[in-house]
Design brief:
The chain is an all-alpha fold. It folds into two domains: 49 residues, Arc Repressor Mutant, subunit A; 135 residues, Tetracycline Repressor, domain 2. It is built from nine helices and no strands. α5 runs parallel beside α8 and α5 runs antiparallel to α9. It is elongated and about 55 Å long.
């Protein structure tokens, strides 16, 4: 059941999601979020005692969006190799939908020369959830020892994040296409 409190919180997170991803954390002020969300300052601080707390909610929201998109891409896929490939294809679609804005976790961390412990912890947690997907799929391949599984997962994850960053830099999909070629050779 959605209550007024839930909808106010949702409005704040949705606004922060849009602004942090579009403008960045440092260039988005609390007053802009309050104004664009159409909420009172007290309401924002009731739900989020600090901008850092709001950023943690934003990072959670970005992971939920990514996870939901990946789930749709994986409907009916049972082969672990295909699942890994589909994850890269999903990232390509994500990059297109978000105008090559890149990974929200990497972007936030890049903005934080003095890393916020809360924000850093959430970004790492989200990255580890992404890594866990690759771990689960590689384990299903059942042809690897523990050390080779870790090496393969690390390589896949590096291809995934590297391609994401390069797509953001060049504003094109060729880095993911190249990563997919390398991935298929690995698998």
């Amino acid at each position: 059941m959605i209550t007024a409190v839930t909808s106010v919180r949702e409005q704040i997170v949705s606004t922060a999601d849009r602004l942090f991803y579009k403008q960045g954390y440092n260039l988005t002020g609390i007053n802009q979020i309050i104004e664009e969300a159409g909420v009172a300052k007290a309401s924002l601080y009731y739900h989020f005692p600090s901008k850092e707390d709001l950023c943690v909610a934003y990072l959670n929201r970005r992971y939920e969006k990514w996870s939901a998109m990946l789930t749709i891409f994986l409907v009916g896929v049972t082969d672990p190799k295909e699942s890994i490939i589909k994850c890269f294809e999903c990232r390509a679609e994500y990059m297109l939908e978000n105008e090559f804005s890149g990974c929200s976790y990497i972007r936030i961390i890049a903005e934080m020369p003095q890393r916020s412990e809360k924000i850093n912890k959430q970004a790492i947690l989200n990255k580890e959830k992404q890594r866990q997907f690759f771990i689960e799929q590689v384990k299903k391949l059942k042809k690897n020892s523990v050390s080779s599984t870790n090496d393969l997962v690390n390589t896949i994850f590096l291809l995934f994040d590297g391609a994401t960053v390069q797509c953001q830099v060049y504003r094109e999909l060729s880095p993911i296409e190249n990563a997919l070629k390398a991935l298929k050779n690995l698998l």
